[in-house]
Amino acid sequence: xxxxxxxxxxxxxxxxxxxxxxxxxxxxxxxxxxxxxxxxxxxxxxxxxxxxxxxxxxxxxxxxxxxxxxxxxxxxxxxxxxxxxxxxxxxxxxxxxxxxxxxxxxxxxxxxxxxxxxxxxxxxxxxxxxxxxxxxxxxxxxxxxxxxxxxxxxxxxxxxxxxxxxxxxxxxxxxxxxxxxxxxxxxxxxxxxxxxxxxxxxxxxxxxxxxxxxxxxxxxxxxxxxxxxxxxxxxxxxxxxxxxxxxxxxxxxxxxxxxxxxxxxxxxxxxxxxxxxxxxxxxxxxxxxxxxxxxxxxxxxxxxxxxxxxxxxxxxxxxxxxxxxxxxxxxxxxxxxxxxxxxxxxxxxxxxxxxxxxxxxxxxxxxxxxxxxxxxxxxxxxxxxxxxxxxxxxxxxxxxxxxxxxxxxxxxxxxxxxxxxxxxxxxxxxxxxxxxxxxxxxxxxxxxxxxxxxxxxxxxxxxxxxxxxxxxxxxxxxxxxxxxxxxxxxxxxxxxxxxxxxxxxxxxxxxxxxxxxxxxxxxxxxxxxxxxxxxxxxxxxxxxxxxxxxxxxxxxxxxxxxxxxxxxxxxxxxxxxxxxx
Amino acid sequence: xxxxxxxxxxxxxxxxxxxxxxxxxxxxxxxxxxxxxxxxxxxxxxxxxxxxxxxxxxxxxxxxxxxxxxxxxxxxxxxxxxxxxxxxxxxxxxxxxxxxxxxxxxxxxxxxxxxxxxxxxxxxxxxxxxxxxxxxxxxxxxxxxxxxxxxxxxxxxxxxxxxxxxxxxxxxxxxxxxxxxxxxxxxxxxxxxxxxxxxxxxxxxxxxxxxxxxxxxxxxxxxxxxxxxxxxxxxxxxxxxxxxxxxxxxxxxxxxxxxxxxxxxxxxxxxxxxxxxxxxxxxxxxxxxxxxxxxxxxxxxxxxxxxxxxxxxxxxxxxxxxxxxxxxxxxxxxxxxxxxxxxxxxxxxxxx
Lengths: 581, 352
Known about the structure:
The complex is a heterodimer. Chain A has helices at 12-15, 26-42, 45-52, 68-75, 77-110, 116-123, 125-128, 131-142, 147-155, 166-191, 195-202, 207-218, 220-235, 239-245, 253-263, 270-304, 320-347, 364-371, 373-406, 415-424, 427-440, 442-447, 451-476, 479-487, 492-503, 505-521, 537-546, 551-580. By secondary structure, chain A is mainly α. Chain A has a single domain (26-66, 95-229, 318-580), classed as Orthogonal Bundle (MetI-like fold), CATH 1.10.3720. The longest helix of chain A has 35 residues, at 270-304. Chain B is α+β, with helices and mostly antiparallel strands. Chain B has two domains: 4-231, Rossmann fold (3-Layer(aba) Sandwich), CATH 3.40.50.300; 242-351, CATH 2.40.50.140. Chain B has eight helices and 21 strands. Chain B has helices at 42-50, 98-108, 113-126, 142-154, 172-189, 200-206, 224-229, 234-239, and strands at 4-13, 16-26, 31-35, 57-62, 65-69, 74-75, 83-86, 160-164, 193-197, 209-214, 217-222, 244-252, 258-261, 269-271, 279-284, 290-292, 302-310, 315-321, 324-330, 337-342, 348-351. In chain B, the strands form four sheets. In chain B, strands 7-8-9-3-10-11 form a six-stranded mixed β-sheet, sandwiched between helices. In chain B, strands 2-1-4-5-6 form a five-stranded antiparallel β-sheet, with helices on one face. A five-stranded antiparallel β-sheet of chain B has the order 14-13-12-15-21, with no helix packed on it. In chain B, strand 8 (160-164), helix 5 and strand 9 (193-197) form a beta-alpha-beta unit. In chain B, helix 2 (98-108) crosses helix 3 (113-126). The longest helix of chain B is centred in the middle third of the chain and has 18 residues, at 172-189.
């Protein structure tokens, strides 16, 4: 059979041709992508720092370099109050979230509590619920005029909690951040096997002693890691103080910046930039410490992952069912009831316990969402940003990830940090940075005051998420696959387009779904950019709420949650089909 | 097909020298094997030829094309070298069918659709995968995957075929068949081939020439027989099969051959080689040592069988002769106890 192929047969004549010559070296395109990523990520910080050091706003003629902005900031007693509030909130939230998150992870990951698998899935749900939806839902139920608050105070005449106090806000902050702790600790648990725990049990230790003496000390690196992360997140939080703090006049760092910006005597005061620069330094410092720590933690996990996998659950004994019921109640109170409250609030004239809800039923809120141009536009704009911006970002990040990890581009090592940094920067800071960037540079004028500017800010802020999803998938693709393609005569871009990106399809889709959900719910980078005519969901909800109009805000939040649910379901379905193929 | 010239190749990774002045030539249609333990630099050498690693110094040329010349700052991109490569993992693109995998290098070269179809059919017939053209890689067995990788590598008639341990992902039975099949194909098509392996059986059975490498250097170069029979270096002798080593005084024999005398072999072992120096070390393969009954006269010094293991087609013995222990391979069953051991003239060779 081999004899019929004496080499070279006629058809090989064209095959002997050289691979197609390229009119541009591959590195030119790589340089372009590199420049786009670095300019988008690093660009906004220069105008931010610059404007904090000028005596006059950039758009006014004249002005000198000065530290006056920082002096103004430090002289403002409101600033110091906001700092104190933020620190107490951050400490409270972090302690609560880390304690509860760790307990939940150990309960679901290491014991024989009934329903632990289902609870494990439900516990991370708050990550997927748009944060403003959860906040509005909490206000509807547990806020000053909330449904349950009223029920307890007016109908039962009992002393009542105050959600708008710092402890109250810490509680909600903890509910929002618990999934982060849960995921981190659970990953650490999954990466280590239970043989140290088994050994302790053979030595005669009971479940409680095993958990406190063996399991928890083993988890110390993971716990420390998410403690720092959550503390840093708390410093920049904007939605909670704006929604919850306003009634009791409590400002946090981010809301202080926002209020000074939007209601100051001079527009766009430079001391806001100064405040942003300070916050940027503090948060970056915290996250650098965390990166150092988690580096050593990963070494720890990698070495023990070899034996990982199986474990024998700890027996809770007679505490099995009580803990199961307690956890169910926790999920019901923190997530399910607020979401139901959100739906209820969107369907009634006013949420009160003095009248049964169906007597107050109204379609007015939904009618307003459907007809009011601002509300309608904010839904459509948000969908455009989430869909178009999400797709564009995933594509850019995918190519940048390939350059960072699968090319010979000289500056490739700078790309991975550039892709991780934006998410580490507080959203409000990035927003102020983009505001000054659009103002200072001529090309910026093209996107100033329109949706494109907001799209860019939101996408840059969240591009880290796409990287975090795509990179692990790329790392699993054997480098011999691209090397073979190169040897076959394909240039770098052909390999990217025809080999690597097609193989990465499931990861690209997952990244897109995550981007879509996040872009739909995110708002902090655009609170400084939004102008009438370019509304997005989050900011519109914020501003409408501040005007005291709550029903339509609840309706918008329900729309947001519904869109997220639909996209998640569709995404999971397509992903399953892709994986099967 | 052109020759490959590799000259004075050196490369270090963070201070460790992985290639230390490597030079060799692969002639047209020749099958050359780089053999050595892991970390000896054989794969690095292959990757330098393929263009995935750049040597610190040296030159690699294929016919008139210079691939790398550090002196002249030439470093041709991997995709411009016209090579076919088969990796250990086979590296078949999972999102393409068998036919699409094989067609890829042809499409990259902008061949016409009809020419591509014709060539793909031809190549798939050659690697005996005509029936599997429409299948996806995960539907194929290991042996079929390997043939897809090979078909893809030869689809555009590359100047040189590079093989990076292509058999190590196959099970033992399949490996032997794939070996014969690949050798036949290489011979029929007249492919100039560079093959990297750590498996001595693969190297011996397939190669026209073997380069044994260790610690970034080429220790021995020659045909399989030369390398096996006259390893020259102790490392080479040990790496290619088992070997006994004896060190003693060297004198000149009556016919000009060298004679090595040790305390155990007082009559001397004749080695038909020229050897300078008063002492030397010889290597003797276990199968070349003769064993006879203890009462057989004139058949070498007396020894004792310490233990025996039965390996199907032969026995492996450990025999003590004086203070040395020899490993001996024989078809004959022997009981533990006294024997006589003889190393016939020509069985031993000097090593450094």
